[in-house]
Design a protein that fits this description.
This protein is an alpha/beta fold and 205 residues long. It has a single domain, classed as Flavodoxin domain (Rossmann fold, 3-Layer(aba) Sandwich). Helices cover 43% and strands 21% of the residues. Strands 1, 2, 3, 4, 5, 6 and 7 form a 7-stranded mixed beta sheet that branches. Helix 5 links the parallel strand 5 and strand 6. Helix 1 crosses helix 6.
């Protein structure tokens, strides 16, 4: 089997959070779908709440510290991305937007992405279409046709609503797996690729 890497970005603020729960379910379904397509998957999760101060520092200094740089490299170097945010005031969270503001605008070009969102009420479900899709279109990613929204009532055990959520998760995961499996595996990042040339260091650049 070939191996693909999945980066999972969760912007949940609480522990535990419904955002992370949805991210985990999308990830498990995608791993299963990739296995059905003859590919193993390695998964790396980026919890944005752990990088809130790092992101604020980056906004004012223009530099990512080691922890944030590792998170950015995880996302940009993966074969596929699962991105899940809570919805506040009918849009993605500020933490979610700040992270993708920090990502280089060309670093995600062509990357397969599965979008997910959570909120207390289904009234926020259209945020996936009017907020998240335009953001990832700007970043020139390839977004899976099915995006998954989960409201509080979607987590009910054993009822029809919960079964509908499961079906949406499986459909979206299959779409992402198709996109990822069709692409060649991402090359390992060169840790010295962005190093400043020695001549520039001598000039004090």
């Amino acid at each position: 089997m070939s191996t693909r890497t999945l980066a999972v970005v969760s912007a949940g603020l609480s522990v535990p959070s419904s955002t992370r729960l949805l991210a985990d379910r999308l990830t498990a379904a995608t791993v299963d779908a990739l296995r059905e397509r003859g590919a193993d998957a390695t998964v790396e999760v980026v919890e944005l709440r752990e990088h809130a101060r790092d992101l604020a520092d980056n906004l004012v200094t223009g530099f990512a510290n080691t922890s944030l740089r590792e998170a950015l490299d995880t996302v940009t170097g993966a074969d596929g991305l699962i991105a899940v945010t809570p919805i506040f005031s009918a849009s993605y969270s500020g933490l979610f937007k700040t992270f993708f503001d920090v990502v280089d605008k060309d670093a995600l070009t062509g990357k397969p992405v599965l979008l997910g969102a959570t909120a207390g009420t289904a009234r926020h479900s259209l945020a996936l279409e009017h907020a998240l899709r335009p953001l990832f279109a700007y970043l020139r990613t390839v977004v899976a046709p099915t995006a998954v929204f989960a409201a509080a009532e979607d987590w009910g055990a054993g009822d029809a609503t919960n079964r509908d959520l499961v079906r949406r998760i499986e459909r979206a995961a299959g779409e992402l797996a198709d996109l990822v499996a069709q692409r060649p595996a991402a090359a390992a990042a060169d840790p010295f690729a962005s190093a400043m040339p020695f001549e520039a260091l001598l000039r004090g650049a």
